Amino acid sequence: MSIKFVLSSVLVILMVALMTKTEYAQASKYPSLTESQLIFQGDPGKWDANKPHTFSVVEANRDGYKYWAYYGLAYYGGDPANRKAGIARSNDLVHWDKYAGNPIINGDCRWPNVILVNDVFYMFYAEYDANNDSRIVMLTSKDGIHFDNKVEVVGKELGKQNQNPFVYFNKNDKNFYLAYYHGVERSNDKPLVGRAVVNTKSDVTKNLKNVWQIRLLKSKTLEGLKSAKPKTLISQSYTIAAPSIAYFNHKYYLTGESVKEGLWDNKWVTVAYTSDKIDGKYKMVSNNPVLPDNDACVFQTIIGDQLYLFYSHALSIKNYDWELRVVKATEPVK
Known about the structure:
The chain is mostly beta strands. It has a single domain (about 30-330), classed as Tachylectin-2, Chain A (5 Propeller), CATH 2.115.10. The protein is built from two helices and 22 strands. It has helices at about 5-25, 200-210, and strands at about 35-40, 50-60, 65-75, 85-90, 95-100, 110-115, 120-130, 135-140, 150-155, 160-170, 175-185, 190-195, 195, 210-220, 230-235, 240-250, 250-260, 270-275, 285, 295-305, 305-315, 320-330. It has a four-stranded antiparallel β-sheet with strand order 1-22-21-20, with no helix packed on it. It has a four-stranded antiparallel β-sheet with strand order 2-3-4-5, with no helix packed on it. Strands 6-7-8-9 form a four-stranded antiparallel β-sheet, with no helix packed on it. A hairpin with a 2-residue loop joins strand 20 and strand 21. The chain starts with a helix and ends in a 6-residue tail after the last strand. The relative contact order is 0.14.
């Protein structure tokens, strides 16, 4: 075998490897985004002053507005009265009018996320008890304003949180999915080990706090989500929460808020993962963080042929002051 042949073979192998690596890197990038644009802030002295935090948009086409958005407040303090939800409406996704009857939910409602199916509005959000353990509930409405018929979808667990719901209808398999955060964020509970009560948080909760998970429920119907078995999509040793899912140009993208000591200038950021299957193995994209400057709580939303990211930008982390912003992908959905 000649040296020339060997060198040629090695060169071919290296070129193939380089091309494969390049293709993988391109495939694992999150779509490039436009400059951010302010949507609105809370009204000084009112119920939402400096606290708007989450923004769930549906194409409702009612009461003179094409788009209805359900927004919730930042978590500040343990008083359930601080956790409320309101409506903002728009025809261009940039200029929003707040509903005069806000708030539409007056307490213990964090992270309202809404989907419109067959002229029925379904709202999911998290409720908390005195120990900050949380569950996820679902309510329904015919007019998009008055919600009732509350049912529990994900129950409370001692010393843990089930929160940050994001409901998604997957057109590819005609199933509904509910992604949510599972872990220990701010519980006051002392969990049980076997039948013995743990006397200090450090025994159990300290270890639990080293695990943050994104879980997924699947059902043919929204009502069936309450009996679905959860699947863990992501598990990290540092904060990963607030999941959101979108299908963009033949890939599923899952975003989440994250913070890690010594990384990203110790800011809250939005990171993204990608997978070929909605409930498959997710890998981090190569261009993380996709939103880098105390930007969190993203709700990915496909409207027409455009991918929008509605998210919260911190004015003051210390004071829980936030404003709502939007960016969109620079290329259309194909």
